[in-house]
Amino acid sequence: MRVKLLRNLHAALVWRSYHRWPLVASELRRRWVLLRHPHVEFRFDGPVYFGPGFSLHAPDPCTFAVGAGVEFRRGFRCELAQGARFTVGAGTVFTNTVLVQCSTSIDVGARCAFGQATMLVDGNHRFRDLDRPLLAQGYDFRPLRIGDDVMVSTKCTVIADLGERAFIGANSVVVRPIPAFCLAAGVPAKVRDYFGPAGKEPEELVGA
Questions:
Q1: Tell me: the pLDDT tens digits for 45-91?
Q2: Which residue among 106, 165, 166, 193 is least crowded, i.e. fewest CB within 10 A of its CB?
Q3: C-beta separation of 150 from 118 below 8 A
Q4: How far apart are CA 173 and CA 159, in angstroms?
């Protein structure tokens, strides 16, 4: 009887520690973010998980729209410029220490997964003007679109579009669009394989 009681107590503590309390803490974080950013247009289409260390830098009006079941795990950071738009489809997961920097728009599809220490950006530094310091040269921006069911592995940088179900290998830097149903990896990332419907292979693999 005593063993059973201890087991039940342990199960209850585990449930509270790993299921109940994190959801309560997540809701408190979400409300704090809303309170701090009354000028931001927020849209939540269902329950969203805000992990420890969630950080939103948005000093000016912008848009943050999230589908149901999205997870922002420990250390997620999002930086939005004035007028920027960040949207995320339902069921997408951002694992630890993912960074998003957006000055135009970043639209992420549904059921995507982003590995640890991955970065999504919609622009890059200008650097070719030798008469001006690097930080005074500004940026080149372009909207970033990521399709449904995309997997981006650990420690990747993404600054170009990813098609539906694209799979990006760890430590890759995506500087050119990756077609749907393609495995890409490397610095810069290149298409290595295609696993989609027959007849839709990307040009770089046809005849290879």
A1: 999 999 999 999 999 999 999 999 999 999 999 999 999 999 999 99
A2: 193
A3: no
A4: 8
